[in-house]
Inverse folding.
């Protein structure tokens, strides 16, 4: 998926996923939400739909680094995701 936001191309094929969260609707997987980083260093919020929820759409939204911690508040992180967020300076060890 590709889109242009403020003159920058956001391409999910070239992005690095920092953290992801699978969304369920009535017990069925309806898609995934990801926080990604472009090769150029820009961050984005990516939502993907598999068609199970008609209100969920495929979308890429540019976000600032300082917004990420608030967006992912409450998400369960695996060790790889936690390490990536630490390295980016998005979260800190409690």
């Amino acid at each position: 998926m590709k889109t242009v936001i403020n003159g920058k191309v956001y391409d999910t094929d070239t992005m690095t996923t920092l953290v992801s969260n699978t969304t369920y609707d009535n017990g069925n997987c309806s898609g995934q939400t990801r926080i990604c980083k472009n090769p150029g260093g820009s961050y984005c919020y990516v939502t993907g739909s598999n068609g199970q929820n008609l209100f969920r759409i495929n979308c890429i939204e540019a976000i600032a680094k300082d917004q990420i911690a608030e967006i992912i508040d409450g998400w369960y992180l695996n060790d790889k995701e936690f390490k990536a967020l630490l390295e980016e300076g998005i979260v800190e060890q409690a």
Remarks:
- The radius of gyration is 14 Å.
- The mean pLDDT is 87.
- Strands lie at 2-5, 8-11, 16-25, 28-37, 43-49, 59-63.
